[in-house]
Design a protein that fits this description.
Layout lengths: L1 H17 L4 E4 L1 H6 L2 H37 L4 H55 L3 E4 L13 H11 L9
Parallel strand pairs: 1-2
Length: 171
């Protein structure tokens, strides 16, 4: 961050001698998360992974039922052993399902964010050209900036315009 700040200040001081430097600040994460593209992808992911989440909820309920039966004291030794073995199998299945779901969600989320991040960079470059900006800095790399330098909403609007989401799919 210090190198970036130094570079911005050095550029600004050199530029101040010859011309006025135009700087803008963007909250890239907020700009991305507020795009219709990301909102649609979130809804699609929730729908896609809901059956697996439901399966895990059912398995969790079965594990709770097994625990209740074991704690009831109504089972003989053989019944207790069989139920414990079934509980262990279901517990391993639950752990496998959780791990697989987490990996699949993370992989898909990363793919979506990478694609959208690349698109947002293109949109910000175009926005900078249109507004005559020399530098666009992410707000995460700034200590302070005046709100007049903020272009996050503009970037989100430009992204939505450049990559529109079909109206029927956004339900």
């Amino acid at each position: 961050m210090n190198k970036l700040l130094f570079a911005v200040l050095a550029f600004a001081s050199v530029g101040a001698a010859s011309a006025q430097v135009k700087i803008a600040v963007i909250n890239t994460q907020k700009a991305l998360l507020e795009t219709e593209d990301i909102k649609k992808a979130q809804h699609e992911m929730e729908a896609k992974f809901k059956p697996r989440q439901d399966q895990m909820a059912k398995l969790q309920k079965e594990l709770e039922d097994i625990g209740s039966q074991l704690n009831s004291g109504k089972l003989n030794e053989l019944g207790t052993q069989e139920l414990q073995a079934e509980g262990q199998r279901k517990q391993r299945e639950m752990q496998r399902l959780q791990q697989d779901l987490q990996e699949d969600v993370e992989r898909e989320r990363n793919d979506i964010l990478q694609r959208a991040g690349t698109r947002m960079q293109e949109v910000v470059k175009k926005l900078a050209d249109e507004k005559g900006l020399d530098i666009v800095v992410d707000s995460a790399n700034t200590v302070f900036f005046k709100p007049t330098f903020e272009v996050t909403a503009d970037a989100t609007a430009a992204y939505n315009k450049a990559y529109p989401v079909a109206a029927a799919a956004s339900k």
